[in-house]
Every structure is written in structure tokens, then in C-alpha cells.
Amino acid sequence: MIVIIIVYGGMLLLSFFQIRKSYQLDDFEPYADLLLSENTKPVSILVPAYNESAGIYGSIRSLLSIEYPEYEIIIINDGSSDDTLEKLISRFKLVKVNRVIRKQLHTKEVKGVYQSLLYSNLLVLDKENGGKADALNAGINFSRYPYFCSLDGDSIIERNAFLKVLKPIIESDDEVIASGGSVRIANGCVIQNGELISTGLSHKPIVVMQVIEYLRAFLTGRVGLSQNNLLLIVSGAFGVFSKKWVIEAGGYAHTVGEDMELVVRLHKLIKEKKANKKIIYVPDPVCWTEAPESIKYLRRQRKRWHRGLFESLWIHRKLMLNPKYGSIGMIAMPYFFFIEFLGPLIELIGYILLIVSIFTKSIYIDYAILFFLLSLIYGSIYSTAAVLFEEWSMERYSKVKHFVILFLISLTETIWYRPLTVLWRVEGMIEMVIGKKGWGEMVRKGVANE
């Protein structure tokens, strides 16, 4: 507990100063100038889609209305068994075209290429099912521009998000090779034709807890890691990468956590080439995505995430405590292994020992209550700080009612939500040991009101 409080407390302080610095500059950021700047780099937006019929239309509508001077949208239909492709063809007037695909990364066969008659920069690849990594690799092969963005098929992007997430890349003279933005929960928000009309909160406590969890992970965790170039995760829901570096690294691998594995591999390549490159997180650009609303699908998601975490760490285990890889090997890898991966197992053992000790009467009740209160206070402070950072810097949840709900529910996390996620993550460890593969089915309702 002492180690975790010190680690997370340090990250909280780093995040505080960085967000405050960004917030003070925000009003003066010349984002509009980037629209006219000749240095602004064109970007290919890759959207892998497998059975995304429910939300794909709203997602594409949001992409078509972004503020960015030059971009192409490439939807990769990864062998969907629903009417995803048919809906795209109908809604966007797609016609089949002949386009050469430069096969720099190996992928499943592409069956056809479609282009919209309404929007010349909207293209669709129809390919055999090969998984998300395979779909992204196919999109990279097909893309024309030097930078690409990976975006989930059920996501809604804010209009100026690309200007903000690409600004560090544009200004760094290619020193920054990957940049990730924030992901927020869309459940409860009003979204029409791919545009966020107003923010809101779901009426379900389990969804509100995910809102708090995302705020904490992005606004405190990733800001702190990014400050020292220790970021090992750029969310697959919203991240921009240098195509040249990704191809040199071998593209996306067929793993459960392909987004994290790629970032670790990029860090490895940077260290081996002794290149002065960075992978960063930008707090402000926001992408809205759908969160699971039931225990069943949330449990499935968290088990998969934990398997993906270990898979990435195991594949690159040679980096662990290896001084050759600098701070990535000596700080980032141990942090993700001991704190993020093993932490839930240690915490679960603590719960079990507590219960056993109560029945065997081998526990100091006063100390147990003290530690419980300390854990409750620590967890609540950390979650509340994330909510305050959001309100203080970005004000996405502007209503007082929303802030009060987030604050009150964050106080209950230690009592019910955290033990559940600990149990699910340990289940993910067990599935990893027995060799379970795959993503597991996720049911989506779609975030947009079409």
C-alpha cells in the first residue's frame, strides 16, 4: 500500500502541474493557425470495423466533420457477418474502384475497395476476417499519408481533436512519433449525426464508475507517465502514429492487446536505434466511446485487458530491468508488471486473508479498520482528484449535478467496484495460464442517435 500510494501520489503531482500548465496555455493555443499552416501533416484515419452496424454511421459522420486541412478516412470491414458493409454502401453511396495496395505488411486478402460518391476522401476496404490487428495492417498498406490514426468503429471524435493530438507531432519536427488523446464514455451523452450535442451521465452506477475510472487512467496515470517518456499504452480507440516507424517495427501483432504491444515495440526500436524519439499523451483531444452497461460484458472486457497487458509484457520480457533500454526497462516495465499486473493478485490475497483472519480471530480489528479507512480515503482522493482535474481543466461535465454525482459515486469505489475489477483481472490471469485466446463477444447499442 505504501509503494502504491507513493507511485500514484507522484503521478498525481506530475499530472497536476502538467495539466495546469496546459490549461493556462489553452486559451492562447493557435489551433486555428494549424488549419492554414504548410507544416500541418496529412493523416490517414483507419477505422477497423467488425459487426459495427449499430454505431458505424455516427462514427463516420463525426469524422467527416472534423477540423483538419487534409485527411482520408479508411474503413476496414474485417469480414463482418452483419450489415456493416451494406449500410456503408447505402448511406455513403459507395462504388467499387480499382486501387493499388502496397503490401508492406502481411494481411488477409482484400476482396474489394470502395469509394464514396459523396465524399472523395472516404474509402472502404472489404477484406477477409483476420482480427483487429490484421485490419489495421491492411489499412496501413492502403493509406497514402505519412501519419495514421487508429480509431474504434464505435467512437465519436470531437471536431478539433485532430488538430490538438497532432500539434505536438507538427511542432516537434518528427521527434514525436506517436501521440494519444483522451477517451471518454459516451453513454448518457446526446449525440446526433456523429456530433456531440451535450455531455451527460448514464443512470447506471456501473457506467458512472467507468467514467471515473477513465478520467483517473487518462488525466492522472497517462499524463504522469508521458511526462518522462514512459508511456507504454496509446489507446487503440484514439492514437496517431508515424507510418514509417510502425512499418519498420513490423506493424500490429496478432495479440489481445495489440495497441500496447505496438507501443512497447516502438520504444524497443527507439532504444535499439538510439533515436531521440518520443511517444506522448495529450490530455485535451477527446474521443467518445461506448462503455459496457452490464456486469457480463464489463467483466469480459476487463479480463481481456489484463490478458493483453501480460501478453505485451511477456513478449517483451527481455526489456524488464535491462539497463540497455533505459527508463523503459528500469522503470516503465517494472511499474506495469508489479503495480498494474500483479497488483490485483496481491490485493485479492489481502481480501482473502482478511476474511480468513476474521473467522480465525487472528486479526487486530482496530488496525484492520484503520487500513480499510486508509484504503477508502486514498482511493477516493485519487478518483476525486481525477474528477476535479476534468472539471478544472476541460469542463466536459459542466453541470453541477454531474460533478456531484461523479464525486459521490467515486467515494463508493473501494466498497464495491474495486473488489469486482480485482476479481475480474485475476480471472484474466487464470485464463492466461490456461491459454484462453480471443476477444470474446461484445454487444454494442451504438452511441449515436441517427
CATH level 1 name of the domain at 2-38 and 154-340:
Alpha Beta
First-residue to last-residue Cα separation: 47 Å
Largest sheet features: 10 strands, mixed
The largest beta-sheet arranges its strands as: 3-4-5-2-1-6-11-8-12-7
The helix content, as a percent range, equals 40-55%
In the CATH hierarchy, the architecture of the domain at 2-38 and 154-340 is Alpha-Beta Complex
Please write the string of helix (H) and strand (E) elements: HHEHEHEEEHEEHEEEHEHHEHHHHHH
How would you describe the shape? globular
Number of strands: 12
Verbal overview:
The protein is an alpha/beta fold and 450 residues long. The chain has a domain at 2-38 and 154-340: Spore Coat Polysaccharide Biosynthesis Protein SpsA, Chain A. It has helices at 2-26, 31-34, 56-64, 84-92, 132-142, 161-171, 205-227, 243-249, 258-273, 295-315, 326-341, 343-360, 365-394, 400-410, 417-434; strands at residues 43-49, 71-78, 94-97, 110-116, 122-127, 147-151, 156-157, 176-185, 190-192, 195-198, 238-242, 278-289. The protein is built from 15 helices and twelve strands. The strands form two sheets. A ten-stranded mixed sheet has the order 3-4-5-2-1-6-11-8-12-7, sandwiched between helices. Strands 9-10 form a two-stranded antiparallel sheet.
